[in-house]
Amino acid sequence: DAKTTQPPSMDCAEGRAANLPCNHSTISGNEYVYWYRQIHSQGPQYIIHGLKNNETNEMASLIITEDRKSSTLILPHATLRDTAVYYCIVRVANQAGTALIFGKGTTLSVSS
Amino acid sequence: DTAVSQTPKYLVTQMGNDKSIKCEQNLGHDTMYWYKQDSKKFLKIMFSYNNKELIINETVPNRFSPKSPDKAHLNLHINSLELGDSAVYFCASSRTSGGAGSSYNEQFFGPGTRLTVL
Asked: For residues B61 and B79, is the Cβ–Cβ distance under 8 A?
């Protein structure tokens, strides 16, 4: 799986958009970008994934650059409950039983 | 109606003991995993089981052995516990059938088991 680079920490004011960047310059054509987050003392939680088109769901939006070498996870209206470690993971989607390779992630702190 | 459950949530034990952690998923998934999160918060895969077959076995000591009585359960047995085994262990599951690009292989994680070896 390709490696990813994320800033170690970010701050965001409650109600504002949180934009979390991720660099994956060695991504392969068949690899997807996945985002998970881990709220303190809980198991990781899937947020969103995409291949090359921008994606949006009830939790977040994912913007992938045209060359696919970087992406941004957007939480449109951050709340205190969004404080967590956010992991950007690049992997092939349809490999049976492929484990997630977690990096250090970005610790997002949302404050009032 | 918890999707992925683990028992116990906390486990405190002495060095040298043998212990087990249980995991159950009610999502109908066919692959289950065990991850370890150490004190530095790094999450690493230990094992995964697909249709009762071990398909990943990272460089984990053979004191750790996963056992899957059926597709809904993947238990983790640990023999001769050592201080370095202290960590949080997460179980996860996913469905591996389906087309590429879907979220079919999204992994669902349990709440974790915090193991402390004294």
From this structure: no
Residues 4-23 of B with CB under 8 A from A: 4
B-chain residues near A85 (CB < 8 A): 41
The 10s digit of each residue's pLDDT in B28-72 is: 988 899 999 998 888 999 988 887 778 777 788 989 999 999 889
Residue A96 buriedness (CB in 10 A; 0-12 / 13-18 / 19+): middle
Q: Distance between CA atoms of B87 and A102, rounded to whole angstroms?
A: 16
The Cα B42–Cα B27 span in angstroms is 26
Q: Is B98 close to A94, i.e. CB distance below 8 A? A: yes
User: CA–CA separation, A69 vs A28, rounded Å?
Assistant: 10
